[in-house]
Amino acid sequence: MSVLVDKNTRLLVQGITGREGGFHAQQCRAFGTKVVAGMTPGKGGSDFEGIPVFNTVEQAVRATGANTSIIFVPAPFAADAILEAADSGIGVIACITEGIPTWDMIAVRRYLERTKTYLIGPNCPGLVSPGQAKVGIMPNDIFQLEGPVAVLSRSGTLTYEAAAQLTERKIGQSTCLGLGGDPIIGTTFAQALRLLEADAQTELVVLIGEIGGTAEQEAAEVMATMSKPVVAFIGGATAPPGRRMGHAGAIITGAAGTAQAKIQALKAVGATIAPTPADIGATAEKVLKGLKAQGLAPAKAKTSTRKGR
Amino acid sequence: MKVHEYQSKALLKEYGIPVPPGEVAQTPAQAREIAARLGGEIVVKAQVHAGGRGKGGGIKIVSSPAAAEAAAAQIMGQPLVTHQTGPRGVPVPCVLVTRSVDIARELYLSIVIDPAARGPVLMASEAGGMDIEEVAAKTPEKILHAPIDPVAGFQAYMGRRLSFGMNLAADQIRPASDIMGGLYRLFRDKDCSLAEINPLAMDKEGKLWAVDAKLNFDDNALGRHQDVSALRDPSQEDALELQAISYGITNYIKLGGNIGCLVNGAGLAMATMDTIKHFGGDPANFLDIGGVARVERVVNAFKLFVADPQVKAILVNIYGGIARVDIIAQGIVDSMKTMEVKAPIVVRLAGTNLEEGERILKESGVKLIRGKDLADAAQKAIAAAKGGRA
């Protein structure tokens, strides 16, 4: 199994003729993803490294059956690109673009509530199901081992760090999702956890949060209803309040935004906390071994994969 | 982006929110003229981007133009130190000279983006004039919330609910609601990330005034607001942070410790700081170098370390994704060849183009301390900063 991206993924690259878009289209293809279309307005009918380019998402979907999109367009035009993809029936959108104005995302998020589309990001590395498909910008070589652990993170590089530590311990991954560092994102921890709870392959979730907002507290509410264990790390414990730590969402503006408050909320629902990012792999390994020792079979996949909010 | 109180108040006024009469003064003599024009009791307020001005001596109440001039001279004559500025304080480029309001009650009003509600939320409280974080911690029931739908916008009922909730009299409901509506339109039109009036003061006649105001703006939206971008005051920003911005490095934050950090990715950069602290060290800065396309960017980051007298060791922690390890490695080598980097350098590299990066480092012959992973590198950087070798 895995969630959101798999062998059936047919990928459209929005902004394929740009530097980043072109490079990562090829990297995704090298990973094994079926990259079926590119899209750049005005360049329809041309060809990028054997990938047909279209003027609109609608045309691309109609001609190629694309069901997933990855977006590399510049920030001022990114909201438009997301809405075009959703309006054309794309089911999973990963928006890599950084620096989208918050109000643009408020409008996008509100629009998406009425659709079945899942948006990952923006300001994120995308998502990858090892052995099946990559819809993102993460290095191919560290996401090669299929297995029982899902990784959810607000940070790109920490996703790599976590996956590499797992792989080093011969622990494979089901799906790794970088959800993005902005205040308003598409798919949240809470929604992703519901999907992973229903996924037959996933036995354990590694959740990498950070200061700012209340996404980890919302995640804790879902975790209270889950059968699968969660290992968590919260970045930014030492960040000073009031300063934005790179990610637009990583700013402590209230008591709930501190690392301490988040760790407390996650611990209260049974999460095992990795004290430093270097301990994520070892902590996950310990919890997995505990599961096996107790002879607990992974929870049966629940049938519903309906888009929950 | 932050702006000064007088700039915030000018925007509030544009949106119909009552602001006490006042003007900004660049010199003590100007402060005297403005005070003479306004007459009556006068407040002279330091214009800085930090909070806690009152306790820091940055706000003075005077009753004559001469006293206003003296107060302005005193306030502008030295950096202002508050609990938010650090011990060196911040320069005071100007003062706001404004008529004093005879305050009967102090209320609180603000709008922020609530990520959980995926939109703006209006907050109001009877406990104005205090630190709202403290109110939220001790008496959360005193803060009233009204989430605002981004399409429907601010509605009159929200104003009524919050105004009656703050125990305002019937004839004050309309003016209070109008202030809330104006604040929301301002917040929406200008892409604010925070719009706060604290206190929203009621005078003895029952009239409401925005006595202090704070606006923050979404950095990502500044591109569509030339008028807001023009309000930036570089005097309020750290010299090293400004130097970073001049290199196009926007994710650099100066901190108090002695280990310079160069990391790719905001999450990993934060986690690197956490790891250093975990092992007993102290980072000198937060720096997310991002997806490095050019060697020059790395060299520029090293220029920041060299310019920072607090840096006693440098920790380079790279997990290459979009950022390529070979470019980082070349940047380290070029930095060491083109400038005198006194601080020992601890390097941990992984990810995209690692082999090529390793070859560059090896062939250059530069002296580096190698960390095999994040924990190892952090501990070696701490030891190096202390003057020892791990």
Order of helices and strands of chain B: HEHEEHEEEHEHHEEEHHEEHEHEHEHEH
Q: Name the helicity range of chain A.
A: 25-40%
Structural class of chain A: alpha/beta
Number of helices of chain B: 13
Distance between the termini of chain B: 41 Å
**Main sheet of chain B, how many strands, which sense, barrel?**
6 strands, antiparallel
CATH architecture of the largest domain in chain A: 3-Layer(aba) Sandwich
Quaternary structure? heterodimer
Radius of gyration of chain A: 19 Å
Largest sheet of chain A: 7 strands, mixed
Give the termini separation of chain A.
22 Å
H/E order of the elements of chain A?
EHEEEHEHEHEEEEHEHEHEHEH
Q: How many β-strand runs of chain A?
A: 14
The count of domains of chain B is 3
Annotated CATH topology of the largest domain in chain A: Rossmann fold
Provide the residue-averaged pLDDT of chain B.
93
CATH secondary-structure class of the largest domain in chain B: Alpha Beta
Helix coverage percent of chain B: 25-40%
Most residues in contact: chain pair:
A-B, 59 and 53 residues
Provide the low-confidence segments of chain B as ranges.
Answer: none
Describe the protein in words.
The complex is a heterodimer of chains A (309) and B (390). With 309 residues, chain A is an alpha/beta fold. Chain A has 9 helices and 14 strands. In chain A, helix 8 (259-268) links the parallel strand 13 and strand 14 (272-273). In chain A, helix 7 runs parallel beside helix 8. The two termini of chain B are 41 Å apart. Chain B has 390 residues and is an alpha+beta fold. In chain B, 37% of the residues lie in helices and 23% in strands. In chain B, the strands form 4 sheets. In chain B, strands 5, 6, 7, 8, 9 and 10 form a 6-stranded antiparallel sheet that branches. In chain B, helix 2 (28-38) runs antiparallel to helix 3, helix 5 (156-165) crosses helix 6 (170-189) and helix 10 (295-307) crosses helix 11 (325-338). The mean pLDDT of chain B is 93. Chain B has 3 domains: 1-20 and 102-236, 2-Layer Sandwich (D-amino Acid Aminotransferase, Chain A, domain 1); 21-100, Dna Ligase, domain 1 (2-Layer Sandwich), CATH 3.30.1490.20; 238-385, 3-Layer(aba) Sandwich (Rossmann fold). Chain B has helices at residues 5-14, 28-38, 65-76, 132-138, 156-165, 170-189, 226-229, 239-246, 266-278, 295-307, 325-338, 354-364, 374-385, and strands spanning 22-25, 42-46, 59-62, 95-99, 103-114, 119-125, 143-147, 192-203, 208-210, 213-217, 252-254, 259-263, 285-287, 313-320, 345-351, 369-370. At the A-B interface, helix 4 and helix 5 of A face helix 4 and helix 9 of B.
